[in-house]
Amino acid sequence: MTPIDPSTTHPGAGSESGTLASHLGLGLAALGRPAYITTGRASDLGPDADRSVEALRRHAHEVLDAAWWLGIRYVDAARSYGLAEQFLGSWLAAHPGRRDELTIGSKWGYEYVGDWSMSAEVHERKEHDTALFDRQWPETLEALGGRPDVYLIHSLTPDSPALTDSALLDRLRGLTAEGVRIGFSTSGPSQAAVIDAALALRDSPFSAVQSTWNLLEPSAGSALARANDARWLVVVKEALANGRLTEAGALTGDGPADPHAQAARVAAERDSQTLESFALGAAVAQPWADVVLTGAVTRRQLRENLRAQPPAPGADLTHLAEPAAVYWAARSARPWT
User: Fold this and answer.
1) Domain architecture of the chain: domains with CATH
2) Cα dist from 35 to 1, 31, 118, 206, whole Å
3) What burial class does residue 165 get, using C-beta atoms within 10 Å of its C-beta: 0-12 exposed, 13-18 middle, 19+ buried?
4) Which residues contact 182 (CB under 8 A, 6 or more apart)?
5) Distance in angstroms (rounded) separating the CA atoms of residues 147 and 156
6) What start-end ranges are recorded for coiled-coil regions in this protein (predicted)?
């Protein structure tokens, strides 16, 4: 499929370009490996769930089927998401008629090193050099059974050499010439600076960005708007803050577990929404957001996500934000479960 054209995709509040499903994408970060950092994972998969490769492949296929029938047409994977690319590739092979209607994104630059262990000391390893790119691009092709529509450098940060590596940039330009939309994802408190540096790059291969934006961490918003103005594809990840912006994340029993998330929960109640719907709707309402990824782990969560609504017009959500450095420090400390 030809990747989404951001010039014709504006899912903000009041959009008449389609249903909410057309603005949501399914992210496979939590579906492709046994352990991840999202809240409530044991509850989602079952406390005694079989997390073998075959069991998680079946589960991923079930969620992909549900996403398809609910109208979601953007799917996001990565080399480091365990076997997410392979799970997606086998699902595509089982349903060959669906590929042309989907936009498939994936990422390189991290590799999964967790060895399918819940208790691995290290689950991912990052490297943004030509050697890893040259190895991972063929791996992506094999796993997916063909080229992705969108291919991103995974988690570009200020310390990455990718923006100044001429050999790597030439390789990425080569993929652009083949019709692959090239971009990067961002993480950390300097997301905006990285986006602006890439926007200023001469002869840039980039025309897509995937960044964290949510009620607790909206600091990249202005830079993402500039990327949208440059007609880049803008994808939002972690709209629910890895589960912090869910009922399970905001509360433990009858007491507050997360003050900022609890404040967001109060705002959601005033808006007559669940916290999940409120947070996801806030991301979809951003006029620069082309796709908002849902990290749903179950079919029920997908259906609930599709009930999201933008916050009421004029709602002031700025008081819900944390300092970016505080947010990212807390994210880095999240356990793999």
Assistant:
1) 6-332 (3.20.20.100)
2) 31, 9, 5, 31
3) middle
4) 150, 151, 152, 172, 173, 175, 176, 205, 206, 207, 208
5) 22
6) none
pLDDT above 70 for 61: yes
* CA dist., res. 151 & res. 29, Å (int): 15
For the chain, the maximum distance between any two Cα atoms, rounded to a whole number of angstroms, is 56
pLDDT value of position 194: 98
Residue-wise pLDDT for 177-207, tens only, equals 999 999 999 999 999 999 999 999 999 999 9
Other C-beta atoms lying within 10 Å of the C-beta of residue 219: 20
Residues 6+ apart with CB under 8 A from 192: 219, 220, 222, 223
Contact predicate 61/91, CB 8 Å: yes
Q: Which residues pair with 126 in a beta bridge?
A: 110
Backbone angles phi, psi at 205, to 5 degrees: -85, -5
Distances (CA, A) of 15 to 18, 156, 273, 286: 7, 31, 19, 11
pTM above 0.90, yes or no: yes
Q: Which residues contact 225 (CB under 8 A, 6 or more apart)?
A: 287, 288
What is the residue whose two structure tokens read 């967001």? 264
**Which one-letter amino acid corresponds to residue 222?**
S
What's the per-residue H, E or C state across 21-46? HHHEEEECCCCCCCCCCCCCHHHHHC
